[in-house]
Write a structure and sequence with these properties.
By secondary structure, the protein is mainly α. It is about 80% helix and about 0% strand. It has 14 helices and no strands.
């Protein structure tokens, strides 16, 4: 356990190589414990956890231009085997079932994210589903069960997004929010649970964008901003919340521009005169965005591009004296 705890600290301070070695040392010691005490299932459970912990320290793509880290796949299989051995000894253990549900979900994430193997990722999620359903039948729904279930629903959501099954993805994220609301009602990790809801609003917003549901996008970004503002009031100076809130406000501002584009779309007849009006309007909105977020270089680049389009249309205009306004020449 000390090796595992040391690895966490080493990872946090940037000593990744040392953290990997500490995780390997923990695995070696726990393998000795399992061999010396084969009838103690907790030792197998702890070994499975150590295998999983090592996957979190290893680099995701150690070989350039190659998918994922093959060692992680081996470690996940070893983790599942160790957890399964523990469960065989105590078949009704909620702790061991939770562990297997968690590692199958994590394995699915690895397969989807780093290997793009969506078929095998789904197989792992279906195996996790069996353990979650078993725990629900025995009413073994502890806070840890709910935390694992949240990650499971989110991972299904990610997989459905890859498949462009947006309705199913939305349902999965809504299921995750329902589990978080139960944790909040029970008073468990109030701050963390609400912050996780704010993050899920981001994923739901993406789904609404892909489904062209503008009103739903606006509703979700407003909920996200409101929730993050409350959380920041509770924890002033929190860097994660501050960063998330800044991004949420940018998204809200972007949706405002999108709404204006819906109200004032590009002219049907692309005459130079009509395009001048169109690009002038867009340039003014970019200027507003630059004023709101002066440190974001991309907005200045986009505004510069609008100036270029304006200059082009002025040049093509029928007016012989048409010139770019003085305030836009630079």
């Amino acid at each position: 356990r000390l090796h595992g705890s040391l690895a966490i600290v080493q990872d946090q301070v940037g000593q990744n190589k040392e953290a990997i070695q500490s995780q390997r040392d923990a695995i070696a010691l726990r393998m000795e414990l399992v061999r010396a005490n084969p009838k103690v299932p907790d030792y197998s459970y702890d070994l499975g956890l150590s295998y999983y912990n090592l996957t979190t320290s290893l680099p995701s793509h150690p070989i350039k231009d190659k998918k994922g880290n093959p060692e992680c796949l081996t470690l996940f299989e070893q983790s599942i085997d160790a957890y399964t051995n523990a469960l065989r000894a105590v078949p009704n253990s909620p702790k061991y079932k939770n562990g297997l549900a968690f590692v199958h979900t994590s394995y699915a994430r690895e397969l989807r994210r780093d290997f793009q193997d969506y078929i095998k990722a789904e197989e792992q999620l279906l195996k996790a589903k069996e353990f979650f359903e078993s725990l629900e039948k025995t009413n073994s729904m502890t806070p840890q069960f709910r935390l694992n279930r949240i990650e499971y629903e989110k991972e299904w959501g990610q997989l459905e997004i890859v498949r462009k099954e947006y309705a199913q993805a939305k349902t999965r994220y809504e299921n995750a929010i329902a589990q978080l609301e139960i944790l909040i009602k029970e008073g468990f990790q109030l701050h963390t649970s609400r912050y996780e809801i704010a993050r899920i609003y981001t994923s739901l917003g993406y789904i609404s964008q892909e489904r062209c549901e503008f009103d739903e996008m606006l509703k979700l970004v407003n909920q996200r901003v409101d929730l993050l503002e409350v959380l920041l009031q509770e924890r002033p100076g929190d860097m994660d919340i501050t960063s998330s809130l800044q991004k949420a406000r940018q998204d809200k501002f972007g949706l405002t521009l999108f709404a204006l584009d819906k109200l004032f779309p590009k002219p049907v007849e692309p005459t130079p005169e009509n395009l001048i009006v169109h690009y002038e309007g867009r340039l003014q909105r970019w200027k507003g965005w630059i004023k709101e977020f002066p440190k974001v270089t991309q907005y200045r680049k986009d505004a510069s591009e609008e100036c270029y389009h304006l200059a082009t249309q002025y040049a093509r205009s029928c007016k012989p004296d048409a010139r770019l306004p003085a305030d836009q020449q630079e």
